[in-house]
Each structure stands twice: as C-alpha cells, then as structure tokens.
Amino acid sequence: GESVGLHLPTLSVQEGDNSIINCAYSNSASDYFIWYKQESGKGPQFIIDIRSNMDKRQGQRVTVLLNKTVKHLSLQIAATQPGDSAVYFCAGGVGGGGNKLTFGTGTQLKVEL
Amino acid sequence: NAGVTQTPKFRILKIGQSMTLQCTQDMNHNYMYWYRQDPGMGLKLIYYSVGAGITDKGEVPNGYNVSRSTTEDFPLRLELAAPSQTSVYFCASGPVHTGSYEQYFGPGTRLTVT
After folding, report:
1. At A2, is the pLDDT very low, low, confident or very high (cuts 50, 70, 90)?
2. Is A46 within 8 Å of B103 when comparing Cβ atoms?
3. Contacts of residue A46 in chain B, CB cutoff 8 Å?
4. What is the CA angle B65-B69-B70, rounded to 5?
5. What is the mean pLDDT of residues A14-23?
6. How close are the terminal C-alpha atoms of chain B, in Å?
7. Does the pLDDT of residue A42 top 80, yes or no?
8. Are A46 and B102 in contact (CB < 8 Å)?
C-alpha cells in the first residue's frame, strides 16, 4: 500500500522568504498527489494537485514538483505570509475505486515576522 | 452551497456508550469518506462510499460502522466507545473524476472517550 511521509515535522521561515516542504512516497502506482493545508481547528483545505505524468505544476504562489525517480515531491510557497502558517499534508492516491487518499503525517509551517 | 457539514462539533462519551457522527454534503458528490486524525498525525481512512447503498472499509474500520442511504448523507456509527477512539473525525466528499481528485472536507468532530 501507499506510505507517504514528510521529512521534517516543523519548518520555520521568515515572512517574505520562500518555503519548501518535502514529501516522500512509496507506491510507484500512485496516479496523483495532493497538497492540503490545515489550520488549527479546521478541516484540510485543498492547495494544489499533480498527476503522476507531470513533473511540475504551478498555482497562485505555490509550485509542486514531482520526482518519480526518487519518489519525492515538494511544495514551494513563494513570498511566505503569516496566513500561510499551518500544517501541510501531502497525500497520494490511485485513481478509481473511490479515489482513496493516503496522507502523510504533516509539516508544521511557522512564519516568523 | 454549504459544502460538507458535520455534527456535532464536540462530544464527550463514556466508555461503552454509542453515538452517530453526522455528515451531509450538498455538492452532489458520489464519493464520501470518513477519516480520523490523532494528535500530530495525518488522516487515516475509516470507511468510504462510492455511491448510495455502497460502502467499503478503509485502513482503520474496527469499532465503526457506516451507511449510505442517500447521496447527501454518510453517518458514522461508533458502538461501544473506547478511549482509543478519542480523535478528531473528518468527513469528506469528492466527485467522480472530473479532472481533479480533490476531496472536500468538513470542519471535523472532536470526540473524547473517557
């Protein structure tokens, strides 16, 4: 089955700097990956997704990179803002059969003023 | 649209009691899911449903039951609550693949079993 993990439990960055959050996965059959943001006391919120046939995808201030050779993906947040402080999860899944996701343990991003 | 709604927000149960966590979505999504999130951990899938009348076990189904009589509702039943079921429970829904595999999450139910 899928195993998804993150390299660091906590990441502290200065406001305005770029943030990079990393994630490793084990299931080569994963069709897609999703990054979620979870603020304290709330449910996860979708940030961006990427399919396994892509290397890079960009959104508003965020970029996800996928390296299938080493089974690694990263989330880059440009010009990090205080509102970006949250726990970030990567999740992987195989399409079909309900599109189930396997979540990593999360990285706490702290933005310092 | 309200999205995914969950009730109650908080609940304290005594060991051995039972309860039902309610989940409703108004996005006409076929897929629905129940997850639990223990402190400092990621989400683990309890049960999921691909449509009304169809449910299946996820990674951690023991101690829980679900039903899906309508597209909108996906209640989670806890029978004989145990301290190990203390957790935050999230319900989510998602469309059959339309280009995105996004799951939409509710605000969660924080359950304590003592």
Report:
1. very low
2. yes
3. 102-104
4. 125
5. 96
6. 36
7. yes
8. yes
